[in-house]
Amino acid sequence: MTDLEAIELWRVKRAEALKAVDDFNANYSPGTEVFYWSEGRDRNADPDGMSKTTWKAIAFLETAAVFVEGELRAIPLSRIEVV
Asked: What is the pTM of this model?
């Protein structure tokens, strides 16, 4: 992959993350109850916990994520499910 192709791929992923953040924030406010799974856990398994979001969703580089109570790191939106 060339540098230009890598940059374009990053731009596409970043745009997708920003869209996911906008969609989540338009539909859910801080305090929304969610189930969450840690990175690497199967989404078909029981969730790691249920908590409330503490802030609006944000984008880290090309990952859309949200902070939940009791966790020090943001949880990717792909790893949560709204209750």
From this structure: 0.85
